[in-house]
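ugh ok fine here u go
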Amino acid sequence: LADKKYLILAYARMGFYYTNISQYKEALNISLKGIRLSETYNIPDYLSALYYNITWVYYSLADYKEGLNSAFKGISFLKDDKDGFYDQALHINGIIGNIYQDSGQPDSAFYYYKKVDSIAATSKELAAKDIADLYWSIYYLYYKKNYAKADSIIETGISHCRKNGDMLLSGFLSMSSTSYLSQNLVKKAKTEGAEAYALYYGPQNYPEGAAAAADLLSNCYKLLGNRDSAYYYLEIKDSLRNAVETKKSANEIQRIRFDQELGQKEQEAALVLQNQKNRNRITMYVFLTALIFLFVIAGIQWGNNKHKQKANILLQHQKEKVESTLT
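structure:
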């Protein structure tokens, strides 16, 4: 079972990777493979992680009904969770909040964001508080349009991320730039957007994020009347998005190879299981054959004993008859 656990964990990790690079078909397929393998061998250890991947896929495709179904399935397996990579409860409840927010159910979104707060208070994940702040920032910035509240939470998140070196810093900076731009505070928006772009483009190497930050900078420079810089970042945005598409094609080739390797591992695992079943079957046949043989021997022995008893009785009667005749 240990090998199968590692194989399921590999599916969970690859599914998570594909969601992060927006390859949703691959993320869905490989996560479903992990779920099938988990159910086949009754290994629930990573089912919450696998259903979290699927939730992200449906959420990203705006299929909120299926997203919620997968999320609640993930929650039902939290009691069996053995994945120490991140706090599953924190992330699943957070994405449920996002789904409710985007589907126009703010009260439900608020309820699940409050649950995220509660989980973050005792979570062992180092970035738990930042993750909770990130969800609240999204809530107040994009849904409530309460820029003052959003800016306050974002500022706290930025400060905490700078102190702890958290990778969420780029996300907070990008939202800060968006907020300032919405308030027509263009110079502040440009400053925050430039730092977000530098992080996405440099150490994080996240072209999707860099493209979004470049788009913010292009809009900032356009509003500031700097057409050359606006056009420069517009070209960067287009270039990065083209690079993302090219990377997706390369990843597709890698995915095919990976699937082939995993398929081979699955076949090997199935062969081992079948061989074990065959050995068990042969052992059972040998046992039954031996048992039948023993019954046959016992039957023959019992028949012989009965025959001997009859012969002895007959001899005894003959002896008694002879002795009676002689007397």
